[in-house]
Amino acid sequence: MTGYFLQAFIYLVAAVIAVPIAKRLGLGSVLGYLIAGVVIGPIIGLVGEETTTIQHFAEFGVVMMLFLVGLELEPKMLWSMRNRLLGLGGLQVAGTAAIIMTIALYFNQPWTIALAIGLIFALSSTAIVLQTFNEKGLSKTEGGQNAFSVLLFQDIAVIPMLAFIPLLALPELVEKAQSAVTTAAEHHEELSLVADLPGWGYAMVIVISIAGLVVGGHYLSRPLFRFVASSGLREIFTATALMLVVGIAALMSLIGLSPALGAFLAGVVLANSEFRHELESNIDPFKGLLLGLFFITVGAGINFAILFNQFFIIVGLTLGVMLLKAAVLFLLALIFRIKNSNRWLFTLSLAQAGEFGFVLLSFTVQNHVIPVETAQTLSLVVALSMFLTPGLFIFFDKVILPRYENQSNDRVADEIEEQGSVIIAGIGRFGQIINRLLVSNGIKTVVLDHQADQVDMVRQINTKAYFGDATRPELLHTAGIEEAKMIVIAIDNRESSVELTKYVKHTYPHVTILARAFDRGHGYLLTQAGADIVESETYHSALELGAQAMRSLGHHPFFVEQQKAAYQRVEDRKSDKLYKAWEDDSEGERFDNNYRKLFMHLEEQIKVEMKTDRSDRHAGGERGWTPPPKGYADNLDEQS
């Protein structure tokens, strides 16, 4: 028992030290886990023979990940993805497998081994790619969505691969294995429901199992979850979620299929369940820990003895596989018209072998398709390609993305044909709303944005916009800043927005400056730079959502409106005091302890004043605030 505690402690210490350092250096958590595994395994030797056993356990993290992926995908969504799923995914798997098989045949490998190698290297790492996409916010990009479609097809394709691989068994390997393992088999026999079944029987068991999984998941899961939820015990719901995933994995293993694919299918079946979010929140922590452990075992499992003995062969094979896969992916990106940086994201993110490569390699050895010595070499190629994958994402961030951003910046600014009373700098999600409101009320605007893609996109919805950098004085002059009454600064760069505010306030003091702030500190900088009106991008939406929350909790709408108005008044007063405290700090440490103390003091004042401060000083009943009567605004206009 002590040994298990020590091993667990070593793995956890390695993760706790390596992953935060890797994240801080911009390397990503996956590379941090891999480095941690290499350090405690081949380099220091703190872990050793148990790594393979732990890896089999940690692969359950992949099972959980695919279950969660399935929960996010409704059958309708899968159907809508069919073109990318079958087109991109099918061509990638078939094309890569065929090319690698051809190369293996050229090097005198039997066609069965060549085909098995092609299938193994046709797969990419779902775990690494999806984890990195989530960390870097790339999941919603065009490249990320297309890569996800390919990964999804690869994961589904593992099912027929596992069914097909036993048919590739080499007679000489079968005879050798039978003579070597007859005695061992008597002592250890894996549980299986299909071990002695004929082909048609095996197919029947698979069909019945999958059908049972779908039907049971659809009709039996809801009563089970309701029964468990009625207990009110969160830990029992967690146990139920784990029981579900473990049971599905066990069933798939008993019938000789991939547990991960069974979990994925179950996730898709439960995607419409009202308990979906509860399942996600219960399983996600286990998934994260086990995936991290899996990556550590990949690093720790690298056999440096074999690596050094066949260094040039293994490195050459690794780079060759990655380059070949990248070439196939790039060609598919051209065919399917994936553009700009998304094409490179799609290409680089999938140019590696994956965790299912280990599963298929183990399966090919067990079924006497690939010799053990060859499998060990190929296993190192899979591990090394996974180890190099975070570097491809770094290359994408540091080299590819800036190149395409520079191309956008090199585009010649549009010739501005008209002028308006309001110039809007930035036509992102914030600027678009402002522009639509003004234009719909007959106010003429001139819209500028330095992102070519954004300008092209809004033009497609008949919104007039010009490509150009609003911080350039000559462009502002062409846009008519001298005659404009107002400029709205809604650009996405903090420093640029502050500099533009300073320039306009100094050069064109008659122009009213409205600026979007990202947060309180940015708002202070904009105010200091001369902005006349500063609004936080989240303030009003958060306030309105808070008011909606109060109404939903049963508070009277009149009371909610009164409290919202009181909060705004108190917040305005507080903001002025905090800004003065921030501005008076001559030491440069704007958010010092004195500022924080003042902030906390004013927060306490808000709580007090919200209970007593009313716009009309009436009693605190629900009718203390009432909306104005109909025609009230019209009467004011007539009086004025």
Reading side by side through the largest sheet, how are the strands ordered?
3-2-1-4-5-6
Which radius of gyration do the C-alpha atoms yield? 31 Å
Number of strands: 6
Q: Quickly give the structural class.
A: mainly alpha
Largest sheet: 6 strands, parallel
Mean pLDDT: 79
- The protein's oligomeric status is single chain
> Residue share in helices?
over 70%
Shape: globular
List low-pLDDT spans: 181-188, 586-592, 613-624
Total helical segments:
29
What is the strand content? under 5%
Terminal Cα span? 87 Å
Explain briefly what this protein structure is:
With 640 residues, the chain is mainly alpha-helical. It has 29 helices and six strands.
Question: Could you describe the 3D structure shown?
Answer:
This protein has 640 residues and is mainly α. Helix 1 packs across helix 2 and helix 11 packs parallel to helix 14 (259-269). Helices cover 71% and strands 4% of the residues. Strands 3-2-1-4-5-6 form a 6-stranded parallel sheet, sandwiched between helices.
